[in-house]
Amino acid sequence: MRRVVLCRMFDLLEQTYGIDVNREEFVGERVSLHEIDALLAFKSDPHLDDLRGALERIDDGSFGVCIGCKTEIDQRLLDEEPARRMCERCEKEYNRSSSVYMEAHLIH
């Protein structure tokens, strides 16, 4: 999974910022987390932040665990979005709760 996260991060950095790093060195983990942090410095991009967080979760063992119910997130979902932090069930509940809250507090 680390390689998937690094590929997404590299693609985003290259497309958005035109970084001058060899793709295979970056994706092949020959670039340290310290060097990745240096590349991310001063880049205000929430998606990059999410991907960096995914790398941290891989390192600390919490990657792929839902922050809501603490179950494993389906691999298919992680393949689609490696920075994902919620399982489908918790995400649906979160979105439903957010919609209910917004409807209750909006003035028509």
Account of the protein in words:
The chain has six helices and no strands. The chain has about 110 residues and is mainly alpha-helical. The protein has one domain (about 1-105): Four Helix Bundle (Hemerythrin (Met), subunit A), CATH 1.20.120.
Strand content: under 5%
- Subunit organisation of the chains: single chain
CATH 2nd-level architecture: Up-down Bundle
Rg (C-alpha, Å) = 17 Å
Q: Can you give the mean pLDDT?
A: 86
Count of distinct strands: 0
Topology as H/E string? HHHHHH
Kindly provide the name of the CATH class.
Answer: Mainly Alpha
Q: Uncertain regions: pLDDT < 50 for 5+ in a row?
A: none
Helices, by number, come to: 6
Q: Helix amount, in percent?
A: 55-70%
Largest sheet, if any? none
Question: Into how many domains do the coordinates divide?
Answer: 1
Terminal-residue CA separation: 46 Å
CATH topology: Four Helix Bundle (Hemerythrin (Met), subunit A)
**Which word captures the global form?**
globular
Structural category is: mainly alpha
Summarize the model shown.
It is globular and about 50 Å long. The protein contains six helices and no strands. By secondary structure, it is mostly helical.
Fold blueprint:
Elements: H1 2-17, H2 23-27, H3 33-40, H4 46-60, H5 75-80, H6 88-105
Helix pairs in contact: 1-4
